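FAQ: What does the model actually see?

It sees only this:
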Amino acid sequence: MSFKVVQNIPCPEEMLEKVSMSPKLQEIKKQRDQEMKLILEGKEDKFIVIVGPCSASDENAVCDYVTRLAKLNDDVKEKLFIVPRIYTNKPRTTGEGYKGMLHQPDPEKGANILKGIEALRKMHIKAIEESHLTAADEMLYPENLPYVSDMLSYIAIGARSVENQQHRLVSSGIDVPVGMKNPTSGDYTVMLNSIHAAQSSHTFMYRKNEVSTTGNPYAHAILRGSVNKHGQNIPNYHYEDMILVHELYQKHGLINPCVIVDANHANSKKIYYEQPRIVSEILHNRKLNKELHNMVKGVMIESFIEEGNQKTDGHVYGKSITDACIGWDTTKELLLYMADNV
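And it is asked to produce this:
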């Protein structure tokens, strides 16, 4: 095989000891994890909002943003459960481009995964310390999860990964909610089968060990739209889409049926400023149907301090270097609107 060892990466236990969560932060995470599980079980009627930049490339800007969320959270916490989106892995369609802080702690320099692990751990911990909000990240590489799992309250499985066996099996052993996106093809059956696998028990090889899992009862669906064979984006956040997903949930007999709607990506046709309108429609549809109100438990929003996006070397503080985001003023207005209309 044509692999060349660039550097040895310490085991997760060493990295967690080197850049560690304090007992106080561990307790914050424990409490937030429990509250989110109650929401997914339908025992607490709050609306989950996973919100933040497309990719977390700048610690200072990310923590600034999360601190703003924390201040706003004081006004909306009775209605909304805010989860900062701090994504440190970026899937690339062609394998080229910025792959996230894990690979490149400095977006303008080459890869250094060891420094990337340290950087992302420091960023997550700083964000929790300053905001008391634990975050969401995407599990792009299942074998890397032990380096971050102690800090996260929510994990997403992307549209390109949801059909992968290892992602499904590892999800069955995760002890926080895991959202399974519909694949880029839009096939709901693939997504529901992925949820079924994640909710089931398995025995498999993970890292160096044979392991067994008991299943994750909090695995659920994320609707992000799809792309047809002509490359056209097909939204799936409309009323009829939700009704179909509800019917499929009943048919598959899955527990804790839940949908989180991704307001960007194919649902917005990557027109980032459409996200507030899409969220408004989702909230309206929940009011029309009690079953949808109970099933649709949250949204994902791509947002940062400055709206739009820039190239990697753009150097505009708080502006995305990957997908375009709504800005802070729009975000604040949207979250206040959501708190009044869930």
